[in-house]
Amino acid sequence: MGTLQILLICWGVVTAVLVCALIYRSTLETREEDQIFLDAAENMMANEQRAIVTRIEKLSWPITALWVLSGALLVVVAGMWLWQGFRSF
Fold first, then answer.
1. Among candidates 30, 35, 25, which has minimal Cα distance to 55?
2. What is the separation, in whole angstroms, between the first and last Cα of the chain?
3. Helix, strand or coil for residue 53?
4. What is the pLDDT of residue 38?
5. How confident is the model at residue 89 (pLDDT cuts 50, 70, 90)?
6. What is the largest CA-CA distance in the chain?
7. Distance of CA 59 to CAs 24, 30, 36, 63, 70, Å?
8. Using CB atoms within 10 A of its CB, is residue 27 exposed (0-12), middle (13-18) or buried (19+)?
């Protein structure tokens, strides 16, 4: 197995993890309320919303890192593909 195939597999794995993280964040965001009108007795609902927002915020950094890593791997794969094409030309 060549270097290009290994990089393509790595890119595919990173991109698959990124897609899963984006889907997970999307499902969390559908449960998040834009506005909540609560009285003092419904504090449990407010705590649930805070927990959802905390999970969404925790996903921000890993998703950004996965975007950058996926893009960098894609650029490296494209560069190696071009380099191999010019070398065999």
1. 25
2. 22
3. helix
4. 65
5. confident
6. 74
7. 9, 15, 23, 6, 16
8. exposed
φ/ψ of residue 88, rounded to 5: -90, 0
User: Which residue type does 77 have?
Assistant: V
Long-range contacts at 58-67 (CB < 8 A, ≥ 24 apart): 59/21, 59/24, 59/25, 59/28, 62/21, 63/18, 63/21, 63/22, 63/25, 66/14, 66/17, 66/18, 66/21, 67/18
Residues 3-59 have pLDDT tens digits of 999 999 999 999 999 999 999 999 988 877 776 666 776 777 778 888 888 999 999
Provide the angle, in degrees to the nearest 10, between the axes of the packed helices 43-87 and 3-31.
160
pLDDT reported for residue 37: 64
